Amino acid sequence: MAQTWSPIFSVIFILFFVATYFSSAQIPIGGARRPMIFPLYLASPKSSLHRQTIEGSYWRRHLKSDLHHLPNARMRLFDDLLSNGYYTTRLYIGTPPQEFALIVDTGSTVTYVPCSDCEHCGKHQDPRFQPDESSTYHPVKCNMDCNCDNDGVNCVYERRYAELSSSSGVLGEDIISFGNESELVPQRAVFGCENSETGDIYSQRADGIMGLGRGQLSIVDQLIDKNVINDSFSLCYGGMHVGGGAMVLGAIPPPPEMVFSHSDPYRSPYYNIELKEIHVAGEPLKLSPRTFDAKHGTVLDSGTTYAYLPEEAFVAFRDAIIKKSDLKQIHGPDPNYNDVCFSGAGRDVSQLSKKFPEVEMVFSNGQKLSLTPENYLFRHTKVHGAYCLGVFQNGDSTTLLGGIIVRNTLVTYDRENDKIGFLKTNCSELWKTLHIPGAPAPEAFIPTPKSVPAPAPVVSDDNNTAAGMPPTVAPSGSPQKVLPGEPQVGLITFDISFSVNYSNMKPNFTELAEFIAHELEINASQVQFLNFFPKGNRSIIRWAIFPADSATYMSNSTAMNIISQLREHHVHLPERFGSYELAEWKVKPQIKRTWWEQHFWAVVVGIVIALILGLSTLGIWFVWKRIQNAPKTYRPIGARVPEQELQQLSLVSNSEA
Fold first, then answer.
1. Cβ atoms within 10 A of the Cβ of 41, count?
2. Mapped to the 3 state alphabet, what secondary structure does 143-158 carry?
3. What's the rounded Cα separation, in Å, for the pair 308 and 129?
4. pLDDT of 652 strictly over 80
5. What backbone torsions phi and psi does residue 375 show, to the nearest 5 degrees?
6. Under a CB-based contact definition with an 8 Å cutoff, are residues 91 and 102 in contact?
7. Cβ-based neighbour number of residue 550 at 10 Å
8. How far apart (Å, rounded) are the C-alpha atoms in residues 655 and 387?
9. What is the pLDDT of residue 500?
10. Residue 567 three-state SS
11. In what order do the strands lie in the sheet containing 387-389?
12. Which tens digits make up the pLDDT trace of 483-528?
């Protein structure tokens, strides 16, 4: 009997050991037990588990892959790199869809949003996800491929970041929609439903993260595993002061001018490039050939704002920029940081190349990516026409390239061919650049504050009104070119709620109007104070923005850009004005006036001038007539006059007597 049960107990013990090992291992599908910390603390680049995951995905996808066309998910990007520190896109989860503004992050492998029962979540842009209101939501039940909650019921995840922020929660599965500009129909996908946030994740305005990194929980990997998109995606960030941009999940035809760098998927779970040299004004920095290959190499991360170089490279780069620029150096906007800043460059971004040198990044294959000043500078927030270096020293030998490096640059993450492509372009006109058939055209509409984006047409028949706000250049004083049928805006009114009382605010209306105009880059005469009314402990001030003096209207895109900057807190006001928020806004179309209304004052002026000229002529004629009819007081020469009798000299006669 003992001999019979002995093999059975041995088998049970082995199975128990294997199950215990795999349930505690760091397997991506369940959210790693060992939290991801980025950018300074990466997982081991030679991790055998990572290599097995990559190899398995590689062969699985290449067996599926062929040359047939798969749809793309074309999505707009919003927000601004400097003002917000990130770019967001709109994602729709559930049935009916619930909208979320998510940071696009190539350094994260999980997509997560705040859950309705979150115990420690901040106040974000949109309402929290309501699982009970989605008929298609299902929690991911505990299994061998995930970390489980304390009750052993549901799968959980946890992510920690280098700036000491974190996100944790449960894993759920639901239908995810990509907006009505996407060819890709809604798909079921696994995402994180947060029940705790800390640090920047807690305080940020964006709702959560859209993970685009390598890993089975990544939204990209999930779509690829379903064979609904090709193994590629692209990001295109707007330029300085423009914001916005575009994102494509799936493959796009690479333009012939695009330059590529090899990206090694085995080195780390993050996207890396093979950077060899940096040239400033055509001169290479004097660095070791392995400077940019040390430790984790050169990592490209869309969720990081600036660029961080190893100490040796940073010092050489900083000194080269200072040497090639003859502008005056000034202190940075924050006294707590030793920023390298320059004054006197002017506000016109297109002219910065005359003040600052061109920078080139040279890849190991010899191809070069040219960087304009907007790719390594950011605006000084306190000095007009001043800029600061957006490249800093890293804490270790890793080279980390954030979003500033790729502003106005199309970046294609061609995962299938292990390379990353770069193309300098205007990201607000990306579809024209790529000549994509059926690409979305700018939508013409005048929204209201209640305009709510709807999901993809497959899920709902509503229009996606938010998609009508394309990333555009900042408004200028002159009217922009208006597309046929595009509404022409005649007036924008908006209420700003300030956390100060009226008595403190009253003397500063003019100054405040000038600050608003400066931040929106419009003429101060276009911003006018309309009204004030108190609301509790706050002050509501109503403003109006009119077209420039030389224009009778502003384009719809200009108006939407102004509203977007106000709504997304892109307008930075001095601290003495207190915190503010956009309470309400209205866009009024241009009023089509009749001929008489358009020329009323011209007619009035003409009549007045005619009256003045008529009265002047009449007055002159009347004076002349009076002169003609006046009696003559002179006699002609030689005219006969009546003789007068001389008076008697009575005085003489009396004296003689």
1. 14
2. CCCCEECCCCCEEEEE
3. 35
4. no
5. -90, -5
6. yes
7. 9
8. 114
9. 62
10. helix
11. 328-330, 341-343, 387-389, 377-379
12. 333 456 778 888 887 766 655 555 467 777 877 887 777 887 888 8
Give the CA distances from residue 356 to residues 323, 333, 375, in Å, rounded to whole numbers and listed in that order: 10, 20, 11
pLDDT at 441: 38
Amino acid at 334: D
Nearest to 112 by CA among 129, 125, 127: 129
Tokens 């193994």 — which residue?
A: 231
Q: Are 171 and 157 in contact (CB under 8 A)?
A: yes
- If you search the block for the tokens 């946890």, which residue do you land on? 158
310: exposed, middle or buried (C-beta count within 10 Å: 0-12, 13-18, 19+)?
Answer: buried
Which of the listed ranges 386-390, 436-440, 505-509 does the model predict with the highest average pLDDT? 386-390
Question: Residue 568: what pLDDT?
Answer: 60
Dihedral angle over CA of 548, 551, 556, 562, nearest 10: 0
Provide the token pair at 502: 């009226």
Q: Does residue 327 contact residue 342 with C-beta atoms inside 8 Å?
A: yes
- DSSP class per residue in 508-545: GHHHHHHHHHHHHTS-GGGEEEEEEEEETTEEEEEEEE
Place of tokens 């749809």: 71
Does 491 or 14 have the greater pLDDT score? 491
Tell me which of 449 and 591 has the higher pLDDT: 591
More confident residue, 370 or 445: 370
Helical (H) or strand (E) element with 325: none
Distance between CA atoms of residues 489 and 494, nearest Å:
14
Residue type, 262: H
DSSP state of 404: G
Cα–Cα separations (whole angstroms), residue 346 to 349, 379, 513: 8, 10, 21
Token reading at 40: 């300074």
3-state SS assignment for residue 493: strand
Q: Give me the pLDDT at residue 367, please.
A: 96
CA 319 distance to own-chain centroid: 30
Mean pLDDT on 75-84: 77
| pLDDT for residue 336 is more than 50 | yes
Amino acid present at 218: S
Pairing of strands 245-249, 233-237: antiparallel
Residue identified by tokens 């403190």 is 504
CA separation for the pair 416, 420 (Å, rounded): 10
338-350 mean pLDDT: 89
Bridge partners of residue 399, in order along the sequence: 298
Identify the DSSP state of 645. Answer: P
What share of the chain in percent tops pLDDT 70?
Answer: 68
How many helices (H) does the chain have, and how many strands (E)?
13, 33
CA angle 561, 565, 571 (to 5 degrees): 140
Other CB atoms closer than 10 Å to residue 429's CB: what's the count? 14
Interatomic CA distance for residues 574 and 580, integer angstroms: 11
pLDDT (tens digit per residue) in 278-311: 999 999 999 998 999 988 899 999 888 899 999 9
3-class secondary-structure state, position 279: strand
Residues 6+ apart with CB under 8 A from 13: none
Q: How many residues are present in the chain?
A: 657
- Which whole number is the average pLDDT over 232-251? 87
424 in Cβ contact with 238 (< 8 Å): no
Contacts for 562 with CB less than 8 Å, ≥ 6 apart? 475, 492, 520, 522, 545
